[in-house]
């Protein structure tokens, strides 16, 4: 045979608007690139700093101190039951930091890797997804601090702690949806590069990080749970503090639904616009 | 013809480009422009269209109606001047951009090398970057590991393999980058103008490696301005001009056609602008000041260049004369040769100048025109700004036509005085060593 047949499975057809049928398979095929990009981001993170990886410890620790002083001591927000305020804050800060650093890093990642995107082919989704690994490693370091803190206050977690990985996953998924959407939007309209950090900042104050979600009046609980991070943070506190911090179940389910919806929507808007990325960079 | 592995069918790619309109620097006008642009961009964003900077947005076809077929094992060069659509074609082939119309069918894994060292990270060592770059180019870790020693040996920088690449010289960086790319395993290899780096010895090694790859039966598409390399490596070439296939066939004919295609490019091309000056137009004129593209050897070369300046002092207007092989044969600079600078007041000026008569062999020539500041920093450069032809060159009314194509150069030299022959005695025997 000497001609190319369109229906030959080995033949790739490049055409305007042709959805790539093998996209998800390709994503899997390029898993090594995912790993190596993640490794690159981790490897260069603390190069040419004096105290190196110690920053991974210091940053969350300092934030925790500031929150405890400002909200616990000065504003006198109530804690939950007998839990020390520092532990309450830290248990909320951990998933929030994971969420916000994924959102901040991933949303700008296509732009900051524009040299790759405009020169080589790979499923573009790898770029924002790879940033999750860096955030996850920082998160694990913070988790060690939390363990130390609980040891210091003599708090032992219950069986609920076994469900922690599920909530970690949930925090990541909650971040990926909006991140994919923001990443594709930023490529086309750079205005959003300035809007995203601002939005994340506001998110910190409307999410139950520095306070318990129980301070929100009963009749607004459901409305409050439309913020997907409410469910994630409450779930975290429930895992770590056990019975001290029960989950508001209807609200939690609402959070789950919203996270799933954002994920689908983010992935779809990313897929739709990624074909034009190289034209815009 | 064997198996076809690449087929382009009516391929086209359209870009939208923005352009600044001619507006003065009056505050109200500038304000009005910015308002208008912000409005247009908001509307574009609402419609979900891409944002383009500039006052006037135009559609532009970088590639149009492109058809060709390439068979397994063929080595093909893609030639064309800047902006002819070569890189756009390679980007479509590499799946980086999508065509606007038509389609491209591909069979086999494509590895494309549009730049050396894509994704190299300055903070990482040479070793780490080999793995990073390999993964970016589509190699698996196992593949890189298997060929690691070969890659390092090819690059010739064993000693610095554990040094961060930010400490490398440009040459070392390029060597390492090309070494990785040279060991890609793919059925189709696409290479864009990457041999412009490195020293002559390394370039020769790269060319060798490419002919090895070609001989191993892989399909190679190769873009270069280095016509010697193109001729040495490939048998067939596709010549692009203004986004269309201008010629597709044997390499020798393609190179010849490429030279003549350069002639027709220039009309309507955007010249862009410099920081402190902008060249607007350049023409050759006859003795009466009318534009012409014919030069009569032995008469002054009269040029008319329109240039805008911000009034910065010490700006020079320079000219480079090139022959039909694009080789430089002459240079003139107003500041260096005559201490004349562009006027010191902002505005648009028409500069007339006449150069001494030359006896240029018949054929085609062009001038690059540029402005530079203190002769060092080129401010605005326009290559091939004006082309002209010499129809006949017969110094001293000789009966034949001296032409560039004879291979004796571009200039027919003339005598300054009579030729004389006087008898010269044979040289004395040199003294033998050890004597005297």
How would you explain this protein's 3D organization?
- The complex is a heterodimer of chains A (281) and B (436).
- Chain A has one domain (23-280).
- In chain A, 68% of the residues lie in helices and 2% in strands.
- Chain A has helices at 23-29, 31-45, 54-74, 85-112, 114-117, 126-153, 164-188, 192-206, 221-224, 228-241, 249-274, 277-280, and one strand spanning 11-15.
- Chain B has 436 residues and is α+β, with helices and mostly antiparallel strands.
- Chain B has 2 domains: 4-10 and 70-263, P-loop containing nucleotide triphosphate hydrolases (Rossmann fold, 3-Layer(aba) Sandwich); 277-406, Coagulation Factor XIII, Chain A, domain 1 (Distorted Sandwich).
- Helices cover 24% and strands 32% of the residues of chain B.
- Chain B contains 9 helices and 17 strands.
- In chain B, the strands form 4 sheets. Chain B has a 6-stranded mixed sheet, sandwiched between helices. In chain B, strands 11-10-12-15 form a 4-stranded antiparallel sheet, with no helix packed on it.
- In chain B, α3 packs across α5 (170-182) and α4 (141-155) crosses α5 (170-182).
- The radius of gyration of chain B is 27 Å and the shape is globular.
- Chain B starts with a strand and ends in a 46-residue tail after the last strand.
- At the A-B interface, β1, α2, α5 and α12 of A face β1, α2, β4 and α3 of B.
- β1 (11-15) of chain A pairs antiparallel with β4 of chain B, so a sheet runs across the interface.
């Amino acid at each position: 045979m000497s001609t190319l047949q369109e229906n030959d499975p080995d033949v790739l057809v490049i055409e305007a608007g042709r959805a790539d049928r093998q996209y998800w398979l390709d994503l899997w095929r390029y898993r090594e690139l995912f790993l190596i990009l993640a490794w690159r981001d981790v490897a260069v993170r603390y190069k040419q700093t004096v105290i190196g990886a110690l920053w991974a410890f210091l940053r969350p620790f300092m934030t925790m101190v500031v929150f405890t002083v400002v909200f616990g001591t000065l504003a006198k927000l109530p804690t939950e039951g007998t839990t020390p305020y520092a532990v309450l804050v830290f248990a909320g800060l951990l998933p929030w930091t994971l969420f916000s650093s994924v959102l901040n890093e991933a949303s700008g990642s296509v732009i900051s890797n524009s040299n790759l995107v405009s020169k080589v082919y790979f499923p573009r989704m790898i770029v924002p997804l790879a940033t999750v690994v860096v955030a996850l490693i920082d998160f694990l370091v913070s988790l060690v601090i939390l363990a130390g803190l609980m040891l210091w206050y003599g708090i032992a977690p219950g069986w609920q702690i076994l469900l922690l990985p599920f909530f970690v996953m949930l925090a990541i998924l909650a971040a990926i949806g909006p991140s994919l959407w923001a990443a594709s939007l930023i490529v086309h309209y750079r205005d959003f590069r300035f809007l995203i950090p601002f939005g994340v900042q506001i998110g910190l104050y409307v999410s139950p990080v520095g306070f318990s979600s129980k301070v929100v009046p009963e009749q607004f609980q459901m409305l409050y749970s439309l913020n997907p991070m409410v469910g994630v943070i409450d779930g975290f506190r429930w895992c770590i503090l056990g019975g001290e911090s029960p989950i508001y179940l209807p609200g939690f389910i609402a959070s789950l639904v919203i996270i799933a919806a954002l994920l689908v929507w983010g992935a779809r808007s990313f897929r739709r616009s990624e074909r034009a990325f190289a034209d815009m960079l | 013809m064997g198996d076809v592995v690449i087929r382009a069918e009516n391929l086209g790619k359209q870009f939208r480009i923005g352009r600044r309109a001619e507006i003065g620097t009056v505050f109200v006008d500038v304000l009005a422009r910015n308002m208008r642009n912000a409005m247009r961009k908001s509307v574009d964003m609402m419609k979900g269209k891409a944002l383009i900077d500039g006052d006037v947005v135009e559609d532009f076809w970088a590639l149009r109606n492109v058809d060709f077929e390439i068979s397994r094992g063929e080595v093909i060069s893609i030639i064309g001047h800047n902006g002819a659509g070569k890189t756009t074609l390679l980007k479509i082939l590499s799946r980086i951009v999508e065509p606007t119309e038509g389609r491209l069918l591909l069979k086999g894994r494509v590895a494309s090398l549009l730049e050396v060292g894509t994704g190299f990270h300055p903070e990482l060592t040479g070793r780490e970057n080999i793995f990073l770059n390999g993964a970016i180019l589509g190699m698996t870790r196992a593949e890189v590991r298997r060929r690691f020693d070969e890659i390092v040996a090819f690059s010739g920088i064993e000693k610095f393999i554990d040094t961060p690449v930010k400490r490398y010289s440009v040459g070392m960086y390029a060597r390492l980058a090309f070494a990785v790319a040279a060991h890609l395993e793919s059925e189709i290899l696409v290479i864009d103008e990457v041999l412009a780096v490195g020293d002559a010895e390394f370039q020769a090694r790269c060319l060798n490696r490419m002919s090895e790859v070609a001989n191993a039966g892989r399909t190679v598409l190769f873009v270069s301005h280095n016509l010697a390399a193109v001729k040495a490596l490939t048998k067939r070439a596709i010549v692009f001009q203004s986004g269309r296939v201008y010629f597709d066939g044997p390499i020798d004919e393609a190179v010849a056609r490429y030279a003549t295609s350069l002639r027709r490019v220039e009309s309507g091309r955007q010249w862009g602008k410099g920081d402190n000056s902008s060249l607007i137009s350049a023409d050759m004129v006859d003795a009466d000041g009318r534009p012409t593209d014919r030069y009569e050897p032995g008469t002054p070369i009269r040029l008319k260049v329109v240039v805008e300046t911000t009034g910065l002092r010490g700006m020079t207007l320079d000219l480079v004369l090139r022959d039909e092989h694009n080789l430089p044969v002459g240079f003139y600079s107003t500041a260096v040769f005559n201490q004349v600078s562009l006027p010191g007041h902002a505005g648009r000026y028409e500069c007339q100048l006449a150069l001494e008569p030359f006896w240029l062999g018949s054929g085609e020539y062009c001038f690059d025109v540029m402005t530079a500041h203190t002769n060092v920093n080129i401010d605005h450069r326009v290559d091939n700004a004006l082309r002209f032809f010499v129809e006949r060159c017969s110094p001293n009314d000789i009966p034949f036509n001296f032409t560039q194509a004879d291979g004796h150069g571009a200039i027919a030299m003339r005598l300054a005085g009579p030729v004389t022959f006087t008898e010269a005695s044979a040289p004395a025997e040199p003294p033998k060593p050890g004597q005297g």
